[in-house]
Amino acid sequence: MIGLIATNLRRHVGRTVATAIGIAIGVATIVALLSLGSGLKQTAGELIHLGQADLGIFQKGVSDPTASVLPASLAERLEKRSEVERATPMLLVIRAVSEEPAAVLFGVDPKGFISERAVITEGTKTLDPKHVLIGDQLAASLDAHPGSKITLKRRDFTVAGVYHTGIFFEDTGAMVDLATAQSIERRPGDATTIAVELAPDTTLEDAERQLTSALPGTQAIGTADDAARAGANGNLISKAVILTGALALIVGGLGVANTMAMAVLERERELALLSAVGWRPRRLAALVLAEGVATSVLGAGIGLVLGGLGANLLGDALGVSGVVSPHVTPWTIGQALLIGVLIGVLGGLYPAWRATSVSGVELLSRA
C-alpha cells in the first residue's frame, strides 16, 4: 500500500505540494511560538538566578517580573532573617545600550554577590559612575574592549572590563553600580528585584513561603515555572500557541479534505477496480486516509525546518534576540508532528467515507 500511496501523491505533485506548504506554514508558526515560549521560560529562570542566587524577591501582582519595583533597602531587612545568607538589590534597565537595544543593563551593588561572581576575562572589575562592565557576548557584538566608549541612555561610559557568567541573559548585557543605574532611570532608592542566597539549612519551598508571608506585597520566585506563572508574557504565548494550533487544524484540515476529496472524485474508476478485485471498504478508507496523513506529515516536516529558522527571525524582528533565545525541544517537535498527523486524520475523514459510500458496482457503472 505504501508504494500506491507514493504513486498517488506523485501523480498530483502540484496539489500535494501546495497542500503541504499550507500545512507547513501553520506548523512553522506553532514551532516558532513554542520555541520562543521555551526561550522565555529559560530567560525567566536566568533572571531569578543571576549571580547564582537561590531566588528573587519581586513586587506582587505585576504583569511581568521585570516591571517590578521594590525599595533597595529591603535587602538589609532580608539579611536579618534566619532563612537568608545574603541579599543584594538589582535594578534592570531596558533599552539602555543605544548600539544594542535588546541588551539589558544591570544595576548591581559593587559589594554584592552578583558582581562578585562575575568572572572578568578582560580589564578590571571597576564599578563606579564613569565605568561599565559588559558581557563577553555583548562585547563581541559591539567589538568593544576595555577602554572603549559606550553610550547608556545618552550618557558616555568607559568599558572597564569584560565579564562572563555563563548566563545568556547576563552575558549579552552590561553592569553598572546600582546608584548609577538609579540615576540613569531617575529612580533613586528603587530596585527591580532582591537576589537572595539562602542559608544552608533552608529549603527553597520553605523560604518562598516564609518570605512571601513576612513581606506583604512581594512574591518570592525560585523556579522558572514560578516566574512563567507570575508573568503575562508566558501566558500570552501559550494562548497564542493554542489559538494557532486550532487555526492550523481547521485550515489545514480543510485543505487536506479538499485535496483528498478531489483525488477521490478523479479516481472513482481506480477505486472501483480495487473494490472489484477484493479490496474491502475499510482498506479503501485506510488508503485515502493514509494519503492525507502522508501529505500532512510532509508539510509538518517542512514546517519544523521553517519554524526553527522563523523563531530566530521573529526574535530579531521583535528586537528580543538579545534577551530571549529560541529553544526547540523534543516536546516542541513532538507537538508539531502530532498536529500534522491530526490535520491529516481530520482532513481525510470525509474523503475516506466518500470513497467507501458507493459500492464498487455503482462506481464502475458511473466510471
Keyword list:
367 residues; alpha+beta; 2 domains; 12 strands; elongated
Short description:
With 367 residues, the protein is α+β, with helices and mostly antiparallel strands. The chain has helices at 2-11, 13-48, 74-79, 113-116, 136-142, 168-171, 178-185, 204-214, 224-230, 232-266, 268-276, 281-318, 330-356, 360-366, and strands at residues 55-59, 70-71, 84-94, 104-108, 119-123, 131-135, 149-152, 155-164, 174-177, 190-191, 193-198, 218-221. It has 2 domains: 2-43 and 234-366, no CATH class; 50-221, no CATH class.
Give an account of the 3D structure:
The protein is about 55% helix and about 15% strand. The strands form 2 sheets. Strands 1, 3, 4, 5, 6, 7, 8, 9, 11 and 12 form a 10-stranded mixed sheet that branches. The mean pLDDT is about 80. The protein starts with a helix and ends with a helix. It has 2 domains: about 1-45 and about 235-365, no CATH class; about 50-220, no CATH class. β7 (about 150) and β8 (about 155-165) form a beta hairpin. The chain contains 14 helices and 12 strands. It has helices spanning about 1-10, 15-50, 75-80, 115, 135-140, 170, 180-185, 205-215, 225-230, 230-265, 270-275, 280-320, 330-355, 360-365, and strands at about 55-60, 70, 85-95, 105-110, 120-125, 130-135, 150, 155-165, 175, 190, 195-200, 220. By secondary structure, it is of the alpha+beta class. α1 (about 1-10) crosses α12 and α12 (about 280-320) runs antiparallel to α13.
